[in-house]
Amino acid sequence: MKKVILIAMIVSTIVSCAKKSSVEKANSQEPKKDGVEVSLKDTVKEVKVGADADSHGCKASAGYTWSELKKECIRVFEGTKLSHYDDGKTYTTASYVIFDGNKAELFLDTQKESIILERKSEGDSWVNGDWQLIPWKGYVLKKGKDILYTGQ
Fold first, then answer.
1. Neighbours of 67 (CB within 10 A)
2. What tens digit of pLDDT does each residue of 102-131 get?
3. CA of residue 11 relative to chain centroid, distance
4. Which of 120, 119, 108, 89 is nearest to 149 (CA)?
5. What is the DSSP letter of 70?
6. Rounded to whole angstroms, how far apart are CA atoms 42 and 5?
7. DSSP state of 22
């Protein structure tokens, strides 16, 4: 019985070593492109995590976006979330608003740049051109006469 176990261990060791050396040979063969050997190191593009800073130094991979209102990198999802007004459609995007005194900055999924709104006094709506953010049952965002977003 001891001889059978010993023989089984020796055979499994030999088989596992043979597989390892064949894998090493396959990995050591360099690919050729147009008849010229190319190093595997040359074919793999190195990507640095966190190397995606924008012109203001905000790192999108960490969730940061430049705020014109605060003049710093912020994480908009820490602001107030606005949802598309219930128009029967299903949306998977989100929009946000941040507040600073009597100013509000909108980060909308439909706009490339943020929009800054101002209000004259406490309790008034924040306004910028056609845009109006109304503090009613949370917030209602209108453009012209159309309600586009609501949020708490």
1. 21
2. 999 999 888 889 999 999 998 899 999 999
3. 51
4. 108
5. T
6. 47
7. H
